[in-house]
Design brief:
Number of helices: 22
Radius of gyration: 27 Å
Largest sheet: 6 strands, mixed
Distance between the termini: 68 Å
Shape: elongated
Structural class: alpha+beta
Number of strands: 8
CATH architecture of the largest domain: Orthogonal Bundle
Order of helices and strands: HHHHHHHHHHHHHHHHHHEHHEEHEEEHEE
Helix content: 55-70%
Strand content: 5-15%
CATH topology of the largest domain: Hypothetical protein af1432
CATH class of the largest domain: Mainly Alpha
Number of domains: 2
Length: 503
């Protein structure tokens, strides 16, 4: 770190400081013969903090065998040092968030909580006696960014905007500008707060696990390693391209900690379960359950099939398409995008179905495919001309591609037909999606350029690959799908038919 930067940090009057209750607890714990009762009374002076600590201990993060009801029970169960560390996490985040200036954005807090959760999980896997140290260090490993935001805002804000969610790029820019990165700044700040050495070392070494470890004990070395790995894995949640981040993280954790694909996938799913309980306690938005599930699925596929073609646009966990009319899974390159509808081409559909078919059979997850054919579109062409027919086809394509999940794919299957690939979707769920689509097409008024808008309908077939119905190849599934669509037409059109079942 350059001397000039250190001077600006030391002169900055807006750097966050420890809240009084946290400062008091630290001082109590530093005494040679401190009284646990004094610590309980200090924390009890802040009822909101006490309640959050109890809730956190009862959450899947700590996973206590028997639920605790008050702070005294927590102190007996975990010990005063663990409770102190958890209290610091809540106190520091509350204080720091009150001082932020907004250069880093909400993604900063999401990444911080994800990293802390991962570090705690890894610390338990490593058998560390105090995984809460790893949790706090993981939570605070990027706190130096907030110190830089306060001390050199005019220089730092453009860096944050330029780097976006690219953590490595931001670190490189920091090093070039300041002679050190935010991990070093974070270590400096935590030293000012007199936080325990194990936390300071882990934060300072979060980008380079060997940087500050000379002479440290084995517990500090392991904690530092888990925090460094947590930052790498946190990119899976922080970066818009989940698949690329997962592949990079998978390689790193394998090299640094020896975690194979199965263990890494299990860790990601476990972290998601914990986040659902812990995020509200810290008032941090991490996404809803569906978004986290989609993120985990995308990461799992990237880890298990690292050489597979990327078939989705970046942004796992982002929800639907927001009504844009294009599936989020639609490739943006011209050869794989249908010019009229904006959906994927048949070529892209076939490749994606093959990929997902193999994946679903290997992992035992269901895969559903829908085939949608607008009713009597040939009459529109004959009556009003080809241009009107194209407008009608485009209008229906917009509805077909609306608000799909991240990994689902909408495609133009044939001249007038559309297909949907629904990942990890059972037959009942596919039927619901199909019926919703049918009603949407039927209830909308479609402007096809002939003056008054027209109403249209569609016939839809559904087939699901699952434990009850298997196929040898994607071509067999498609053959069943086309027969099912034909059955929907024979039954009177404007209806949904699932394979072997009429609705």
């Amino acid at each position: 770190m350059q001397v000039a930067l250190r001077q600006k940090l030391e002169a900055c009057k807006n750097l966050p400081s420890l809240p009084p209750v946290a400062l008091h607890v630290i001082r109590l714990c530093q005494r040679d013969n401190f009284d646990v009762g004094d610590v309980a009374r200090a924390l009890g002076s802040d009822p909101g903090l006490s309640a959050r600590i109890v809730s956190l201990v009862n959450s899947p993060l700590i996973a206590v065998k028997r639920e605790v009801g008050n702070l005294s029970q927590v102190l007996v169960l975990l010990g005063v040092n663990a409770v102190r560390t958890l209290a610091l996490g809540f106190s520091i985040l509350g204080e720091v968030r009150a001082h932020e200036r907004g250069a880093l954005g909400r993604g900063f807090w999401r990444r911080a909580l994800v990293a802390g959760t991962i570090a705690h999980d890894l610390a338990r896997l490593e058998g560390l006696r105090h995984p809460e140290d790893a949790f706090l260090a993981g939570l605070l490993q990027d706190i130096g960014q907030l110190a830089l935001e306060q001390a050199v805002f005019e220089m730092y804000q453009p860096m944050c905007q330029s780097a976006g969610p690219d953590h490595a790029k931001l670190r490189a820019m920091e090093t070039q500008a300041f002679g050190g990165d935010h991990a070093e700044v974070g270590r400096w700040l935590l030293s000012q707060w007199r936080l325990p050495e194990i936390i300071r070392v882990a934060v300072g070494s979060s980008h380079d696990p060997g940087r500050w470890q000379r002479g440290t004990d084995p517990a500090t070395e392991k904690t530092t390693l888990t925090v460094a790995v947590s930052g790498i894995l946190a990119d899976v949640w922080a970066r818009p391209d989940t698949a690329a981040a997962a592949r990079a993280a998978g390689a790193a954790v394998r090299e640094m900690m020896g975690l194979d694909t199965d263990r890494t996938v299990a860790l990601i799913k476990r972290v998601n379960r914990v986040l659902g309980h812990v995020a509200p306690l810290f008032d941090i938005e991490v996404g809803d359950a569906d978004q986290l599930e989609e993120l985990a699925a995308a990461a799992e596929q990237a880890l298990r099939y690292p050489d597979a073609v990327v078939t989705s646009l970046p942004g796992a966990g982002g929800g639907g398409s927001g009504g844009s009319g294009k599936s989020p899974a639609t490739p943006s390159s011209a050869p794989e995008q249908d010019a009229l509808t904006g959906l994927a081409t048949r070529k892209r559909f076939d490749a994606y179905l093959k990929e997902q078919f193999e994946f679903a059979k290997q992992v035992g997850k269901p895969l559903s495919v829908l085939l949608c054919d607008p009713d009597h579109l040939d009459m529109v062409n004959q009556t009003f001309g080809r241009e009107a027919g194209d407008r009608a086809l485009h209008a229906i394509g917009v509805l077909v591609g609306e608000r799909l999940r991240y990994r689902d794919l909408a495609a133009r299957y044939g001249g007038e037909e559309f297909a949907l690939v629904l990942i990890d979707t059972h037959a009942a769920g596919a039927a619901v999606v199909a019926e919703r689509m049918r009603k949407k097409i039927e209830e909308n008024q479609h402007d096809i350029g002939i003056g008054d808008p027209v109403r249209m309908s569609a016939s839809i077939g559904c087939v699901t690959l699952d434990e009850d119905l298997t196929f040898l190849a994607p071509s067999d599934l498609l053959a069943a799908l086309e027969k099912t669509l034909a059955e929907a037409k024979r039954a009177g059109r404007n209806r949904v038919v699932s394979f072997g079942k009429t609705t």
